[in-house]
Design a protein that fits this description.
Blueprint lengths: L5 H10 L6 H24 L28 H5 L5 E2 L2 E2 L9
Antiparallel strand pairs: 1-2
Helix pairs in contact: 1-2
Subunit structure: Heterotrimer of A, B and C subunits.
Catalytic activity: L-glutamyl-tRNA(Gln) + L-glutamine + ATP + H2O = L-glutaminyl-tRNA(Gln) + L-glutamate + ADP + phosphate + H(+); L-aspartyl-tRNA(Asn) + L-glutamine + ATP + H2O = L-asparaginyl-tRNA(Asn) + L-glutamate + ADP + phosphate + 2 H(+)
Family: Belongs to the GatC family.
Length: 98
């Protein structure tokens, strides 16, 4: 187990601007030591003969191919709009421009 002193935890808390009580400093020293040991253990597992990957299993693309299909024209799309201008939907301004 990594030895993290109470003073080191207090220094880290001061850098992070976190006020910890004496009991919290003692508790955090143990908890941070466990975290550091876990990270060190992960570093031991990594080997040079294993390439880094983003996923443990290969991914296949499941998207469909793009196909050109007929779509609505501007007149049909704007037919139900309460207001239209220059073949676009017209909506009330919500932000002032300077």
């Amino acid at each position: 187990m990594s030895a993290l002193t109470r003073d080191e935890v207090a220094h880290l808390a001061m850098l992070a601007r976190i006020n910890l009580s004496d009991a919290e400093l003692d508790k955090m020293a143990g908890e941070l030591a466990v975290i550091l040991d876990s990270v060190a253990r992960v570093g031991e597992v990594a080997a040079d003969d294993i390439p880094p990957t983003s996923h443990p299993l290969p991914l296949t693309n499941v998207t469909r191919r793009d196909e050109v299909r007929p779509s609505l024209g501007a007149d049909v799309a704007l037919a139900g709009a309460p207001a239209a201008e220059q073949q676009r939907f017209s909506v009330p301004r919500i932000l002032d421009e300077d």
